[in-house]
Description:
By secondary structure, this protein is an alpha+beta fold. The chain is built from five helices and 14 strands. It is 24% helix and 41% strand.
Amino acid sequence: MSTFKVSVLFAVCICKIIYSAEKYPRWFIYPTQDECQVIGFSYQGTAPIIDAERMYWIYRECIVKGLLYRYDDFDERHSDYYYYFPYDSLQRIKGKLFMIDQFMTSIMPEDYIAMFSIDTSVKIERARIRAEEIPVPSWVDKSYWEDENFHYGVGMYSSRLNENDAWKSAEERAYFEIMNCIVIHIFSVKISTKTNYTEFDETASAVELHFRLRNIQVLERYPDVKNQLFYVLVRIKKSDVQSPLLNQK
């Protein structure tokens, strides 16, 4: 194969990687709150069904336990946390989720986002929306708010490499915005870092996480493809957030 043909093929592949997810299904941008449906992401070679089976239980009920660090000197976060749900949950859902639709977000690596349902007869709107035609939501500049019944969290993540990782990270940050805003156990720690050339200290705020979350709802997603920013809006009913660390007003 000539050098010219190789260059053309490479350019075509790069274009497909960049633009493969510029159209999104309505079911992804505006998820329904049907309990029989769940969205799964492929990640590092795993099929979307693996993530879907896990998220099926996390959305319904899970315990989040660990620490969330926010560095004061740098706008960075580091987390050491785990999701817990009944040990036999994955076995109970295995083989019961059926793919309804999917779309590709990357060719190299080959990544997909798929909708699954325990109801094989479910009907969805398969229309695709161009990313630039999605209206900018009013909530993208917010991080947390509440009303009489619900906590709302907005997560944002920037990624120029893996879109699936960006969507998942943005969603988890939305959970943490809620938990971070309603806990009272916050303390400061000093972290020392050594390199081959220097040693320096960083100050971080540590938030203790110990929550039982039920009925997590993803309300909306927004892709800012121009700036490679991905936003996710979630809400949780106040009565479905339980913790010994809650800030009781």
